[in-house]
Amino acid sequence: MAEELNIPREIGRAEKYQRLYPALESLLEGEDDLIANMANFVGALMECFDFLWIGFYRLQGSELVLGPFQGPLACTRIKVGSGVCGASVREGRSILVPDVEKFPGHIACSSRSRSELVVPVRGRGIIQGVLDLDSEKLDDFSALDQHHLERLVELLAKHY
Ligand code: SME
Fold first, then answer.
1. What is the pLDDT of residues 5-39, one digit of tens each?
2. Residue 12's closest CA among 120, 148, 139?
3. Cα–Cα–Cα angle for 142, 14, 89, nearest 5°?
4. Which of 41, 75, 131, 134 could form a disulfide with 113 if both were Cys (CB 3.0 to 4.6 A apart)?
5. 110: CA distance to ligand 1 center in Å?
6. Whose CA is nearest to atom 7 of ligand 1?
7. Which of 117, 160, 149, 158 lies closest to 20 in space, CA to CA?
8. Distance from the CA of 64 to the center of ligand 1, in angstroms?
C-alpha cells in the first residue's frame, strides 16, 4: 500500500519542507526505480503546495527531455542553454525567476506561469536533469524554497 503523507496543507512552507524531508526519504529508500521515484517525488510536492506545475526534465545528450510531472501539458524537449531549465544545466546552479516575463529566453509552456524555480539534479557527480517548479503567482519562490528543494533533490539523486 502506498504511504500517506499526512502533511496538512494549511501549515507554513518551512514546516512543510521539514516534514517532507523524512517522508520522502522513507518513500524513496524502498524503491530503486528512478522514474517511479520521480513520479512520487512530484506527487508528494503537489500534495503539499499549490504550485501550477512540478516536474522533472532528464538530460539526454544536448537536450532536456520531459519526465514525470504534475500540472498542465508541457514542452517535451528543451535544448541545454535554452529557457530557465537549459540555463540551469549550462550554469550548473539553481535559478530562481521571480517574474518569468523578465527572464530573457524563458520558455512559456503554460501562459499561466508567472514565476519559476529550477534546481539541477546531480547524480553520480554529474548533472542528470532538473526539477522545475512553476507558479501562477508572481515572486512565489524564495531562497527558502531553493534551499529545501535542493536538499530534497539530493534524496532523489542517490538513486542514479
Ligand atoms: N519555463 C521553462 C520550460 C519548462 S515549463 O515551465 C514546464 C523554461 O523556461 O525552461
1. 889 888 999 999 999 999 999 999 989 999 999 99
2. 148
3. 45
4. 134
5. 8
6. 74
7. 149
8. 11
